[in-house]
Every structure is written in C-alpha cells, then in structure tokens.
Amino acid sequence: MKIVTFGEMMLRLTPLGTKRLVQADSFDAFYGGAEANVALSLALLGEEAVFATKLPDNALGDGAVAALRRWGVDTRGIVRGKGRLGLVFQERGADRRPDRTFYDREGSALSLASPSEFDWERLLAGADFLYFSGITPALGENVAGICIDACQAARKCGVQVAFDPNYRPGLWDLPEAAACMETVLSYVDILIANESQASALFGISYSPLAVDGDNVSDWGYETLAKALCKRFSVKAVALTERRTISAGINDFSAKYYDGRAFVSSPKYRMRVVDRVGSGDAFAAGLLFSLGRKTGLQEAINFAAAAGCLKHSIEGDVNLSRYEEILALAQKGAEETGRR
Amino acid sequence: MKIVTFGEMMLRLTPLGTKRLVQADSFDAFYGGAEANVALSLALLGEEAVFATKLPDNALGDGAVAALRRWGVDTRGIVRGKGRLGLVFQERGADRRPDRTFYDREGSALSLASPSEFDWERLLAGADFLYFSGITPALGENVAGICIDACQAARKCGVQVAFDPNYRPGLWDLPEAAACMETVLSYVDILIANESQASALFGISYSPLAVDGDNVSDWGYETLAKALCKRFSVKAVALTERRTISAGINDFSAKYYDGRAFVSSPKYRMRVVDRVGSGDAFAAGLLFSLGRKTGLQEAINFAAAAGCLKHSIEGDVNLSRYEEILALAQKGAEETGRR
Amino acid sequence: MKIVTFGEMMLRLTPLGTKRLVQADSFDAFYGGAEANVALSLALLGEEAVFATKLPDNALGDGAVAALRRWGVDTRGIVRGKGRLGLVFQERGADRRPDRTFYDREGSALSLASPSEFDWERLLAGADFLYFSGITPALGENVAGICIDACQAARKCGVQVAFDPNYRPGLWDLPEAAACMETVLSYVDILIANESQASALFGISYSPLAVDGDNVSDWGYETLAKALCKRFSVKAVALTERRTISAGINDFSAKYYDGRAFVSSPKYRMRVVDRVGSGDAFAAGLLFSLGRKTGLQEAINFAAAAGCLKHSIEGDVNLSRYEEILALAQKGAEETGRR
Amino acid sequence: MKIVTFGEMMLRLTPLGTKRLVQADSFDAFYGGAEANVALSLALLGEEAVFATKLPDNALGDGAVAALRRWGVDTRGIVRGKGRLGLVFQERGADRRPDRTFYDREGSALSLASPSEFDWERLLAGADFLYFSGITPALGENVAGICIDACQAARKCGVQVAFDPNYRPGLWDLPEAAACMETVLSYVDILIANESQASALFGISYSPLAVDGDNVSDWGYETLAKALCKRFSVKAVALTERRTISAGINDFSAKYYDGRAFVSSPKYRMRVVDRVGSGDAFAAGLLFSLGRKTGLQEAINFAAAAGCLKHSIEGDVNLSRYEEILALAQKGAEETGRR
Amino acid sequence: MKIVTFGEMMLRLTPLGTKRLVQADSFDAFYGGAEANVALSLALLGEEAVFATKLPDNALGDGAVAALRRWGVDTRGIVRGKGRLGLVFQERGADRRPDRTFYDREGSALSLASPSEFDWERLLAGADFLYFSGITPALGENVAGICIDACQAARKCGVQVAFDPNYRPGLWDLPEAAACMETVLSYVDILIANESQASALFGISYSPLAVDGDNVSDWGYETLAKALCKRFSVKAVALTERRTISAGINDFSAKYYDGRAFVSSPKYRMRVVDRVGSGDAFAAGLLFSLGRKTGLQEAINFAAAAGCLKHSIEGDVNLSRYEEILALAQKGAEETGRR
Amino acid sequence: MKIVTFGEMMLRLTPLGTKRLVQADSFDAFYGGAEANVALSLALLGEEAVFATKLPDNALGDGAVAALRRWGVDTRGIVRGKGRLGLVFQERGADRRPDRTFYDREGSALSLASPSEFDWERLLAGADFLYFSGITPALGENVAGICIDACQAARKCGVQVAFDPNYRPGLWDLPEAAACMETVLSYVDILIANESQASALFGISYSPLAVDGDNVSDWGYETLAKALCKRFSVKAVALTERRTISAGINDFSAKYYDGRAFVSSPKYRMRVVDRVGSGDAFAAGLLFSLGRKTGLQEAINFAAAAGCLKHSIEGDVNLSRYEEILALAQKGAEETGRR
What are the pLDDT digits (tens) for F220-261? Predict the structure, then answer.
C-alpha cells in the first residue's frame, strides 16, 4: 500500500515533566503534525508513506526531515524554502490542571507555499490513499487551493481521499472553515470525525435520546455516522469518542460505518503518557486496515487499539509494532465480549 | 489589597523522581516556607504581598530573595544577617511508601533575629491582613516575641490577623506550643486549622456521631468550627480536611464559618504531583477571596480549588492563574451540585 | 543470621522514563539479579549476607561488586575471571503497553565457571540458609553442577536450602528444566513458587473449583501448597500471587504453608514504580522472618509487605528499612482484618 | 542611580551541551535581550534599573517578566499585548565549529507597539541614564520612532543617553540603519561601539598603521574614538575589542575616551562558558562606574572585568557581585602593570 | 555519486560526562560503526549512500536502522536475523586520564552471517565506490569471505574499492590479519591508513631521518605512501596522522598520494568533544572529493577538515554541512599558507 | 597494609555544571571528607582501610556509610548518634571566576562526639598508619581530645601517625590552631603540608632566594622540608605545590624528604574536572607507597600521579586503579627526565 499525506509540520516545545510554561528553563522538543504523524505510523507499519509539505531552509527544517526519515517516511516530496517552522508550546497538565497549548505558527513555510511547488500527479502515482486534515486548508487560501489540487489529482489518479475536519478555532472562522470543508468533502471518500466537530461545523449530532449521562449509545453514533455519510456522499465515516476524565486519565473508543454496516470498537480507559498524535495513530490504523482489506470489525478494533497505544508513548509518533497493536485489538475485543 | 506575611524560608532538597534519600546523588532544590508561599500565591494573584523574614547573608539567602521577587513578592522587608538558611530534606513517596521529611533548620537566621530588626508599623502600613503560621513562633522565644509585636502592631493599624497553628512536634513541646498559641490567638481574626491540630492542641474535635467510617459530616465540622470560634473569640474559622489514600492519591476539601454561616467546598480526589505548599495555597486563596469580599461559598470554593490545583504543580508555589482557579472552583461546585 | 545466595548478576539497561528501546538515546543502569537482590535485602535488614558468583574482570564487574558492597553484602566469595557481564534490556511499559525485556547474557562469566572455583563448605560455614533460584542452574550444566555441590555442602553443614524455581523459557527447555529441578528439590527445605510455575513445571495447580473469575480462594492455594509440599518433601512452601492489571497497576499477595498451618497475607493493589526485584524482596523478607522465628502470620505479612514496598522503589534493591516494612505489614493486616 | 533601558526581550533556545540544532531533542531556555541584560546587570549591582518593552500576553511573556523581576529589575514599565515573543535558536559551537544562531523574531510584540504605549517622561523621571542598542530601532519604523521619543524625553528630563549601534544585517539594510543611527546619535551622550561596527556603518576605522598582525595599538583605538567623538558630537566613546580564537577561546578588552583622556583596560584571554550578554555586561559595568563617578581607568577596568566575568556564566545575565568584578578588575590591572 | 559500505554496527554506551564506567548509573547511547559512519557522512553530504550489514531482529536492530535512515542512508541492503547487536563500553577520559574502551561484540548478527545473504551485484549496481575497513573481515572467516565476494563483485561492476586496514589486536592475531589483508588489498584501489598500522601489519614505515621529535616531515610520509602504493599496487594512498596530547587535545592532519602527486593537509590542533568517527569522517570526505573530482589539494584539505570538524560533534556521525567543511578547509589552508 | 583514618564526613552540594549557587535549582551531591577520601583511595588500591567517625542517625548518615562501603572501606568503626551531617555548598568556577565554597557544618554529629565513643586500641590493632588532618581537631575541644587519644593509642600500638595540618581559618583561630597542632605534631611521624600552611601556622617558609617569579627551586623546598622536620622531630615531610592558573587549569607537584634524601615529583599542568579530594588522593598514594616500601622517588612520583589523576574524576574519590596511577607516574617521570 502507498499513502500520501499533506500538511504542516511543527516543532512542539514542552517543559520537562509537568512543569508549567512560565517556570520552564528547558524544553523537550518533538517534531510532528497531524499528517506527518499519519505518515510516520504507516511507515512504521511497513507501508510506503509519502509526506508532502514545505519546510524552511534552516536547521529546524533539516531536523523535521530527519525525524520523518528516521522511521521510514519518504521525504522526497518535501519542498524547502522561505518561512519559519511553526512552533507549538505545550505544557503537560496533571490531575485537574489541564494541558495548555498555544501555537506560534504564523508565517510558516507551508503557509507561504504556492500551488506550483507540488506536482500532485507525480506524488500520487500508484497511491491508494491521500490523507490530510482540516488544519492544512486552514493555513491560508493558497494552501486550501493546494489541497483542492491534491484532491483533484487524487480523483484523476483513482486515489481515495481520507479527511479529518479537525477544526481549530484559532486558525480560521467557523463560516470560512465550514465553506472550505464543504468543497473539500466533495472529493472525500472516507471521513474521520467526532461528534463535537460534526456538530460545530455542520450542525449534525446524535439524538439527545442516545445520551445517558456521560454515555452515548451505539445507536446514537450510528445515526450520526449515517447522517454525515448522506450529507457529504462519502463512502465511509469513522468516528472517535474521547472523554477527558482528568489530565492523566482519558476514555477512548471509535466507530466505523461503511455505508452498509456499523461497527464499534472496545472502549479504553487510559492513563495518558502523551496524547498528542493519538487521533493520527487512529487514522493511520484505520487506513492500514482498509488497505489490507480486513473485516470491518477488525479494522475499527485495530485502529482504536493503535490510537489507545499511542497514549502510552512519549512524542508524536506511535512507535508500536503491528503485532503489539494487533494483540491489544484482540485482547480489547475479548474483554468487551466478556462483559 | 495588601497582605504581609512573616515566617521562615528554607531550601527544600528532594531526590530526583521517587528516589530515596539514601540513594540520592542529586537533589532538586526549592525555596519555600509556609508564609513565603502564601505571599507568593497572593503576588501571583495580583495582590500586593510583602514577606518579612531574616535571611543569611550568603548565596542561599540571595537565592531565596530571588525566588520571592521572581513572582512579584515585595522583599524590601527582609532583614539579612548572621545564621544559616534552614534546610528540609524530603523524599517523595510512591504508592504505599509515604513521603519522608526531615528538617535541618537549627541556627537559622530568623531563629537568631531580634525584635528590633522589624519595624511592624511601617511594614503593615496600609495592609489588609497579617498572616503567619504556628511554625514562626515555634522557632524560639525571641521569634514568638516578634510575632506578638507584629500582632500588636496589626491591632493598632487596623490590620486583620490570619493564623494557622500548624503545630510541629519536632519544633516544640505541646504544652509550650499550646500556651504560646493561646496568646497569639487573642490577636487573631481568622483561624485556619484542621481537626487533628485542633484536637491535639486544644482538645477540640467534632462529635464522634459525625464520623461514619472515613467520612465526617458537615454537621461535625460546623460544630468544630463553632467551638473554635467561641473558644478563641475569632471572627472566622477555616478548616481543611485531607485524607491520604496513598503517597500519590489524596482527598482534599475545606469548610468556612464566619460566625454566622457555615459553608463547605467540593471534595477533590487528587493525583498528587507535589503536595508541599497546598495548605498555603488554600490560605492565600481564602485571604484573596475575603479581600475581594466575594460571597462565602465562592470564597471557600476558590480557596479549596487553589489548594487542589497546587497539588498538580512542582515546587512550593501555586503557579495557577486567577482564571484557572476560578474555573476549577466553578466546575467543582457544579459537579458537587449534580451529585 | 547468615545467609548465602548464589546466582548471576547482570546490568539492566532501561531507557529513561517510559521511552521505548527503539527511541532510546540514553539508559539508566542497574546492577542486579535474583540472588544478589535477596542478599542485598537481607544485608539492608542487618543480617550477614554473602553473595557467591563469578564476575568478569572488567569495569562492569567492578561496578557489580561495588553495587553489592554499597548496601553491605559480603563480596569476598565472588570469583573474578573471563567472560562478559550479562545484560538485560528493559523498556518500561505504560498503561496498556506492557514492559518489554530481552536478555543478552550468553557467555557470561558465571556461565563459564567451573565447580572448583567455589569452596562451598567455607562459604556456608555458620550459615542459616542457602538461597538460589532456578535461573542459576539454567545457565548451563556446569552451573547446575555447582548448584548441586552447594546443596550437598549445605546438607552437610546443616544449612537450610531455600529455592525458587523461576523457570525462564528463554534459558532452557521445559523437560530439561523440570528434570534438573527435581534433583535440586531433593535438597530443598523451603520452596518459594507461584501457581503458573508449579503448573508449567510440575503439572500441579489449584482446583478449578477454587477459581472465581480473577480470584482464587485461600483453600485453592492451600491445596496447591500441600501438593507441592508432599510432592517434593519440602518443609515449607511459600506462594506468591501477582495479577497485572496494567503496566502501572499490579495486585500482589502471598501464602505460606509450613507443613502444619497455612497463612495468607493481605493483598496489595499497587501503583508500580519498578517491579524488578519484588519477588526477591519477598523471598528475603520471608527468610528474615524465618530466621527471627516470628509467628507464621507475621512472617508472611512481613514478606508480602517487603515485596509490596519494593514496587515503589527505583532499581533492583529493596531500600526499605525494617521499621518501614513492619509498619506496612501491620497496617495491611489491620485493613484486611477490618474488611 | 537610576537607569532606564528599552528594547526587545527574546527566548533563547539552545540544544543541551554542544549538540547541534539538527540533532537536538531538548533545549535550554534563557530569557534575554541586550537592553534587558543591561538592566539586569545594574539591578544585580544594586542600582534602580527599569526595563521598558512590550511583551505578549501569554505564558512566555509572563516568563520574561519573572526573569527580570527575579534579579530585581523594575518591570512596571512593561506593556503587555498582542504579538509573539521573539525567539533565538542558538547552537553552541566547539573548537573550530563556531556558534550558530538564527533569529525567529518577526511579529514580536514590541515590533507591533505604538508610541502612545510608552510614557517616557514618567519612566525617565529621576533617571541618570537611558540606554538602548541599535537593535531596538531596527525592529521597525514605529519602534525607531519610540526610540526618538525616548531620546527627546531624556533630553528634556536631563537624562544622559547611552547607545550601542549593534548593527545586525539580518534586521535592516545598511543605508537604512546608518540613516536612523545618525538621527539617534544626535541625542547620544555616550557611544559604545567597536571597530567593525564603526567601519561598516560610518566608514570610520583606525589607521592601518596601528595594526600589527592581530594586534591593534592603543594609538589606533584612540584615533578611532576621537573620530567617533567628533563625528557625532558625543561626550564619550567606549570601544570593545573581541578576538575569536576558537568557539571556546576569546580575547576581550575595552577602551574609553571621555573627550579628554583615553584609557585602556587589561586584555583577557577567556575560556568561554556562554558569551551571550557579555557586551551588555560591559555596558552595564561602564554605566555603573560612570554613575559612581570612579576614575576613568577604574571605570574601564571595572567594565571590562564585568564583560570578562560574564563569559564564565551560563545564561544571558551577569550574575557577578560587585566585589567579584572589582577583584578581577584590580587583579587584571596588576597583571597588566607587571608585564 | 553512489557509495556502498559494508561492516558491523554497534551500540556505544558511554557514562554521562566524564564519569568512569565503574561509577556510571546511566549511559548515553550512540549507534555507529566505521563503515556506517562513512555512509552517514556521505548521505549528509547529499550522496547516495548504501550501507550493507546484518542486524539482529530486535529493538536494538530497529534502533540501528532508524539511526541510519535518520540522516538519509539507504538501508534496504540490510539483512535482519539471529545474533546480538555488538556493544562498546567507552568511558570518556579527561586530561591525563585517557579514554577507556572495551568491546562486547562476540556473537553479533554480522559475525553469524553467511555469504548467500548478500547479493553484491545488485547492491553495487551503479556505485562508484565500495568501502570497508579491516574490522569487517576480522569478524570471522565467513565475514572475510563476504568481503572478498563484495570485492570481486566490485571489480566485475567497475566499482572502485576503498579500504582502511584498521587493525584491532583484540579481534584477531597479527599474522592472520596481515594474511587476510594481503588478499583484500589485491582488490583495493584506494588505501586509507596511518603509519602505526602500516608498520604493525606490513612493516612499512617512514625513514627515521624523517622524524624530528614529535614531527615527521612530509618527505617521510611521501616515501611511506609510495611504499604502500607500490607494495599493494593500489592507485592511491591516504594517510592520517594523529597525536594525542591529552584526552581532550589532539593534533590531526592527512596526506594523499595518487601515484603521481603527494599533497598534505593543514594540521589541526583540536579540543576534542568526541573523537569517535573522526577517521570515518575523513574517509567520507576523501571519497566525496574524489567522486566530485576536485583537485588533489582540495580533496585532502576537505577530507582533513571533515575529520577535524567531527571532533567537535557529539556522537559517531559528522553532522557538518558541506559549506561548513569547505569553509574550514579553505580557512585551514590559508592559515597554513601564511605560516 | 592496614590504615585507620579519623575525621568528619560531609555532603557536598554543587550546582550542576558551572551554574552559580544563587541560580541553582538542583545540586549534585557527593559524600566526602579529607580522611574519608584517604581511606577510600586506599581501599580502592586494595588495602585494608578503616574509617572512624561519628555520623547522624538519619538517611544522610546511612548514605555516607553506603558511599564508604561501596568502594570497600571498613565502616565498622563508625559511631552513629545525634547531630547533623555537615554540608558544603560549592559552586564550580570557570575561567577567571574561581570556585566558591561555604561550609554549613556546625552541630555535626562528630563535633558532638565524646572520647568514650572510640576504642582506639581496638580500631588500631594491626594497623600500619593512623591518618587525620587538622580539620578534625578543629571541630572542637572534645574532638581534638579524641585525636590525642588516637595518637597516644597509636604510639602504644606502634602505629605510625601521618598528619596534614590543613588549617581552615573559618574553623578556628590561628593561635588556637597552632597550639593544638604543636601538641598533635609531637605524635606525628609523617607530616604532609604545603608552604602556605607552614608559613601561616609555624612561620616556616623557603628562602626568598629560592623564588624566581612563579617558580620555586627544589633547593627552596628542601630547606623548607628540613626546617619542618627539625622543628617537629617528624621522620618525614611531604610537601605539595599547587598553582591555580584559572578555575580550570592548575599546576601540581610534590616533594618528599625522609630525613636523609629529598626527592621531587614531575610537575603536572592539569585541566581540572574536580579538584576536591586531590590532596587526599596524594596522601593516600604516599601512604600506599610507604606501606609497600617502594623507593623514595617511586613513592613521590606515585603519590603525585595519584593526586594529578584525581583532578580528572568527578566526585571526592580517586577512582583510579593502581595500574593507571603507576602508568602516569612512569610517564610523568620519563617526560621530566627528557626535559
């Protein structure tokens, strides 16, 4: 399988341990980004993963390329040039003190890119999937245009498009975001979302009758998935569900609807080491399973297990091996069955 | 609002992570002390906070001053001179292995101070509160005398006195402590205490009928608060309640009685990062609310949230912002209401 | 009391924090080994503890000796010579990602040792116990032979033999292991084991009727202990029971049968800092109590508390003091009694 | 003495030890900036030091304020608002590999400031000196305008102006810089410069006859100082001389001409720990001496010793005490005299 | 240009800072090996670099592959299978205490490899150079056989062979080594060596008349190079010269003779950060220059500058950019010319 | 050989790297003390080394014992009881910024010891040497008394006494110190000193004619040694000579006069890692050589090499092996011979 992802890569700076930003005198540094993380996960699973982006022509740009190559991502589609590397300052929360994140990404190299710098037909040749999230078009009209170019090339080359809206209020206005996503979604085959995004962007949610306290029934998710599927004429919809109990404890599960059947993964209560990149690990696990054409239930279980395991790993990248993810997927399914 | 606190500052030395003292080959170092921490919290909340003490004339004394100034405490009332900086060696526990602390504070600069070194009327000019804990008079008769000087000046200047008995058996005998505190309490407006201190020092506790296993009813705390209020003719009593489930898990809540009404905060079960200074963060949150004249319930909720959040922060200082404490106070209250 | 233990010592290399081996660019290093850990625990409890082994004649061998001496183990019985120091690479798991360990111990100095290098009668003179685990004879026929020499000398000198089968599939085949252990067990007085080992090696387990979900009744363990006692004519059997809830949460308890009475320790649910060496801490706690001739219940409670506390300490060595273990043993017993 | 400095503060991020940026996975972080460093040095010497700037309204802005307050700088003149905190990525060189630095400061809060945000007459009230470097006007026309405002207010209030051109090619073009500095210099009393800046900006150098290999005679510096003095009608000129032998070894010395006399400091060959802020430490040492009205030779010796000592201290701030600087100034002078 | 290198990769474990092995409780870890380092340097210079080896099928093997990919080496020629990853324990010396290194590499995966696992004609297709050092054939007769296979394939494919004898007494006997190298050298085009190796292995040295104290004249090196050239019928000989002044200070220079002309690089006195891999950086710099067909003097200057810069970089890999090496090569040449 | 040393052990706290005390937020911790270091060196050289002291009955006291045992010192002569562990705060200098040290040792356990706690005849049984420095009697009259007890017992048991005055102005007055040392010296066989101590305490120096700039001739040292020998009727005098070029560069050499012959070691210019304990390493090296009865020249060369090597090792303990010291002693002697 070959997959191409497209997006921005940033340097995440995190005070050591659970120190606060204001008291930090050193930072751990992680290169990452939603689409880069998806490519990294797939490369680690043994697939051909191509990451397309534009990076600055400085040592941090070199560092980002090295971080991708280290785990086997094909970086030959990366353009280098003017601009900065975007930064994310993040302090790890603890107990009732939530994680705090602020972005410092204006003027990034990708946000200054022009469409002519990406030859999508060459990049997508032989690919099975194109993946990007809603963060990429949010970087500017030029980048949104490059996304549409990529989608059109994907359609032309018979490459399926997977997309996660990932709406970030800090990057653009809701109406602008919704309008852009409508256009993008007209090219999308597989939509990866969650209820809060669907609700905020498109006004689509589950029935209030499906909600019982903090729990939402599978029926609720199924109707939500079907509504999204119909509304945007996508082939399939994946939904993740996260509940933040505290900074250190989260619940995570996922659902998948392929236009015919609806399946639901085990729900994992997790002690979080680093939640950054867990949604990307899920997306990668899903595309991996779809590429391998496993059964639907196996697919959503594998994807949810991939997302769950990422929470136990420091950094943006899901350094789990195929066998490890599979083992958890099977164990999780057993435990669910037993209940 | 202006507040003046008076007490000793020490250097806390803690082996990295959960290492034991006996195996430590390096130490994290934190400057702190009950009254310094209260001043630091209030400075971080934007109030004028003055800390009075005596510090040695060496690099550790300089470090202590810098630690106070860093977060905005007014250090002009600090006397420098002979003596040592007190030390606290503390090993962080884990699971069933409790924290271990031992003090090495004999001969500290403050314990050698003389009353003439502090000009209380100048220090307290324009202040709303004077705060100190029972550790300060425990440092010696001379220091107890300085405390009484401060209290008398406070009465003269119309400054309210807040006091936390904070009895430490290692520092003085119980009869000596009780006698001294009786004197101090004759000047106190706001008493901050807990049941074990009240019981040990003054023989005042809640009714055994208020206890059900590990839980004590609000009625129990109310009668305890009233008893203390009456016994010492203080205007108000704040009570904290802590239960140590393990080294890493604690329960924390607080009560407040102002002579008329009794209010009770939400109870927080917390995963502890560093519990040092949490009582001080509570005291600061309470004084802050009293200074702002919020409602009683808001006051105890804010104070308890401040105490709770401190547990998630490394070091002695509650580096939480006003908005963060308020958000937890409101969220905690909602959750309690829902139960 | 004097105890002699015999086995291999290794250097454990662990990526910092919860990093994975594949991403590690530095390692924490701990010298340890089952029998060395037992000797270290006993030396820390104030007993005369002799550790016999062979170590390479290089800086790592010197480091191993220093690690033993640091806490008071008598290292004069250690032979130095050719070969390597065995290594263990271990990554700490987190949440659903389990610990991963792989051994790199082939060609170790002890595995190349010859019987003539150990003068057992001299080493065992005046000793109360000889202890080793099944890892030692697994290192090779020559080392198995040295174990038998030691056992025979122990019998001759009136030294009791304590043994933990500790079967490791990576070191030898099951039939080979079972055969060797049969021979060893003919010299053993006190057998320390668990159900999975008893079942795998000797086909001895508890009745299925004793199992209720994840719980096994004391009756079940008692019958297992009696069966082992009878099968191998040992004087006493200690059984440990561990359940791994996640990488960070484990349950731990223990049982003891002395041929007459059966006792059971409190069960501890623990948040794990480092589980390496916890079984060894248990064994040491048991031998310590037997040497002091405390009551059976006190003995198993002390041993289980020692094992429990080790989980809260970084490194292989149980750096708990006698008073600390005793305090937990008494507290655990009280809590159990109350339920 | 009171001094007011005005400029930008940044966060410097440096890979640990001598690691290169491209391989860094963590960074040491230091808040600093030329004018902030001058204020910090003077506060540490016990003077009243006010730092004026604009900082972003986020945790990094808070961190910058805390870094100033920690050593006693008056931060009440700091405006908070929109924009970023500028960043400097710096890798420490070693031996023949020089330090590498790149700036990421576009869009900083100060560069977005407007003149109305600074009330110079209030800030400068009672001050002896206003100090800023050429980096400040280089941040934009608006900031250059604020600098002129400050200069005019200084003239009005009888405050002397000290200025270091500090031309940075990355920030502005040479003609633009030279033109702006001409204007600034019409307000300047004390010019702090070096030959390479004087030559690049104003075409003023020493006579080639003053140069002998790597050495320049005092006569050469004297003529250069006089030329600058005359050209810009300043009262005094200070010149520093640095020679980079390798990344870790530098030579440093300074000269001073007050319109009448010319003095020259000892020359120091230094093993460099961190050279950032050494020019600022020199400037602060000079202003301190001028404020104390020591003799000229004492002044330049003290200033050069301050600059030299900074090289031995990690971070941007010269954490040397008055006595320490004085001791080196005297020792350096003695050694020079003896030669 | 394409280059293929073949050899063993190891994990180097080094106590932090200048700690000794015996006191180490943590280690920095670096993956490297002579031939891997050459490939890494060339990949960083932008060339196509293929590294062939056999690595164990475990996490350390994965880590080694990731370390190669990170900087762009083509790892598709790497075989995975049974065996260990070799280890090197190294303590950094300081001043008069020299570095100490010991190898723990027996049973490594490559030492267990069989010739059929390497398809040399495919690996070498289109390559300009094959490179390996004498460590590779020293790993065992099977590996020596693989080396000869590689050489024969190189000759068949028109690929030049570059070789560095790198005799290590711990790995094989001198006669055995000399005999094997004779065979290897019959295939070699470019021999990279130093005097001590040439003397020990082949009894070829410079004239005693060329030696003056610690200095050897260029004439001496030229006769040595010519002797080696003639003796083994190689096209060219490169010689490095290192003098260890102390653990932290080394001199380094190089010579090159291409059968016609002899050239000599500047000599660098260096303050050493990490000398591991400096010879490999030199070899890579030389092959890079030969591939680019620069002039001889440029080639040896570039190679020596590459070797020099490596000493300033932590880890095995020369993370210097082309421009940086070139700048030092030119500066070094200028300085030499001036003397 | 058996040696007994007697003195105080402290915990040295040092900010990481070259940070200043005032900015430190963590400390490296080293247990040490002059006499403990001598015992540790001798134990590492394979001799029987007994250390006598009194330590507090807390975790730091336990840590001190463990630090001694780790390298083989016999700790059975250590008394445990009331008091503190003395502390030394030390900041590492750099370049022209010298090391700064301050002691916080008042009230240490040893300073509170009483003579009856030490059974010198038992401790000294079979010993060859008793060693202590002038720091020990400086701790108080009681401790000075214990020193005299030890000396008298030594005389009785035929044990030679080695003594280093090591006068510390912070601990006692000069007249008091001189008087006490006179008494001690009446028992001393081997006096280890340097010129500045001899001059300050006893007014004995070398002839001014022996001084040429920074160099002092051997003749000068010989007359000094003879004067000391005669003045105190000691059998032998060892003199060390240290010159502090900068914080990081020191010169070190030593002389020895045995009443007949005078010998002088090579002079070492050293790049210093950690100079603490280098004098102790010298003393240990000297006693070791005297115990082995090597020639005088060998003895002083070995001792000086031991002192030199210590400067390259982090911590108080000279972790050099016999072979390493010998190698440097021989190399240093050769180099000196060649000059």
Answer: 999 999 999 999 999 999 999 999 999 999 999 999 999 999
Instruction: Check CB contact of E59 with chain F, cutoff 8 Å.
Output: no
**Between residues 61 and 80 of chain E, which touch chain A (CB distance below 8 Å)?**
66-67, 69-72
> Which chains touch A (3+ CB pairs under 8 A)?
B, C, D, E
- DSSP symbol at A265: P
Question: D334 at the E interface (CB within 8 A)?
Answer: no
| CATH H-level, domain C2-338: superfamily | Ribokinase (3.40.1190.20)
Nearest-angstrom CA–CA distance, F95 and D248: 11
Could you give the angle at the alpha carbon of C149 between the alpha carbons of C147 and C155, nearest 5°?
Answer: 105
User: Rounded to whole angstroms, how far apart are CA atoms F184 and F151?
Assistant: 8
Q: Hey, are the CB atoms on E270 and D95 less than 8 Å from each other?
A: yes
Query: What is the sign, positive or negative, of the torsion defined by CA atoms of D326, D332, D333, D338?
Result: positive
| C223 pLDDT higher than 70 | yes
The Cα A294–Cα D87 span in angstroms is: 48
Which residues are CB-contacts of A281 (< 8 A; sequence separation ≥ 6)?
A37, A41, A306, A307, A309, A310, A318, A320
CB E167 within 8 A of CB E197: yes
Tell me how far apart the alpha carbons of residues A74 and A76 are, in angstroms, rounded to a whole number: 6
- Which residues, in sequence order, are CB contacts of D260 under 8 Å at separation 6+? none
* 8 A C-beta contact, residue D34 and residue D280: yes
**Token couple for A306:** 């991939």
Contacts of B99 (CB under 8 A, 6+ apart): B90, B91, B92, B93, B247, B275
Burial class (CB in 10 A: 0-12, 13-18, 19+), B323: exposed
User: Tens digits of per-residue pLDDT, B125-153?
Assistant: 999 999 999 999 999 999 999 999 999 99
Cβ pair D231, D181 in contact under 8 A: no
Dig out the tokens for E112 from the structure: 């267990």
- The residue of chain D with its CA nearest to that of B66 is D70
**Predicted ipTM?**
0.94
* The dihedral sign for the CA sequence A279, A285, A287, A289: negative
Contact list in B for residue A246 (CB cut-off 8 A) is 271
Alpha-carbon dihedral sign for residues E32, E37, E39, E41? positive
Rg, C-alpha atoms of chain E: 19
Q: Sheet of A86-91: strands edge to edge?
A: A100-104, A86-91, A10-15, A26-32, D26-32, D10-15, D86-91, D100-104
pLDDT digit string (tens) for chain E, length 339 residues: 999 999 999 999 999 999 999 999 999 999 999 999 999 999 999 999 999 999 999 999 999 999 999 999 999 999 999 999 999 999 999 999 999 999 999 999 999 999 999 999 999 999 999 999 999 999 999 999 999 999 999 999 999 999 999 998 888 999 999 999 999 999 999 999 999 999 999 999 998 899 988 889 999 999 999 999 999 999 999 999 999 999 999 999 999 999 999 999 999 999 999 999 999 999 999 999 999 999 999 999 999 999 999 999 999 999 999 999 999 999 988 877 765
Kindly state whether A40 is in contact with chain C, defined as any CB-CB distance less than 8 angstroms. no
DSSP assigned state of A117 = G
Structure tokens at C223: 């019958």
Q: Of the candidates E74, E128, E69, which has an alpha carbon nearest to the alpha carbon of residue E289?
A: E128
Tokens encoding B69? 């100034």
Quote the radius of gyration of chain F (alpha carbons, Å). 19
Q: What pTM, to 2 d.p., does this model score?
A: 0.95
User: What single-letter DSSP state applies at residue E294?
Assistant: -
Q: Are F135 and F166 in contact (CB under 8 A)?
A: yes
pLDDT at C101: 94
Residue E282: per-residue pLDDT: 98
Question: Which are the contacts of C247, defined by CB distance < 8 A and separation ≥ 6?
Answer: A312, C92, C93, C94, C95, C96, C97, C98, C99, C272
